[in-house]
Each structure stands twice: as C-alpha cells, then as structure tokens.
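Q: I have 108 residues here and want to know how they pack in 3D. Can you give me a structure?
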Amino acid sequence: MSLHLHIDSLSLAGIKIPRNQRPQLQAALEAELARLCAVHGIPESWQQGGRIRKLPANLTLTETPGPTELGQLIARSVYTELNPRDLSYGLPTQPAANTAMSPAPTGS
C-alpha cells in the first residue's frame, strides 16, 4: 500500500520558527510520519483516503525545541490523534538523541 500525504498548512501558535529552519522542520515531520507508518502501520483513517480539514497536535512544550525535534514531536502527536484505538504506541515523548535529519529541498 502506498500513501500520498499533503499538508496544506501548519500553524504553530506561539512558536516562532525562523524561515531558514522551516525546511528542516518539514523534513523532520515528513520523515517521522513515514517512520511511524512503516513501524506501526498506516492509520485506518488514512487508508480509505479523503481529507482531514483540521487536526490539532496537542503538545505541551516547556521550552522551544529545535526544528528537527519539533517536527518529530508534531508528527508523533498527529499520528497518535489519527489512531484513537491505542494512544500510546510506545512512542517516546522526546526524539532519540542520535536522530539526524537533512533539510528538505526548498521550492522556488
């Protein structure tokens, strides 16, 4: 099964991400969602296709993480929201320390 996911926009209330770090956040979010789908399966709500107009990423941050960590945290929150049958998935609350992501290519 293949999955095509398009995120039209991402609103981060109260968090300022410099423009030059946004591609890194995007790449981390995409990579973590892909990893979660590969490890835990594609959420049932995505398997029939369709559109999700709005999905909250319920995060409580005590400090502003870097763009890679923030992208991973958002992806985990989104994935958990899409899988109501088991909200834990054994996902760590913080990304692994040795996780390295490359920024996604930027469009013109």
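Q: Anything worth noting?
A: Confidence is low (pLDDT under 50) at residues 92-108. Residues 19-81 form one domain.
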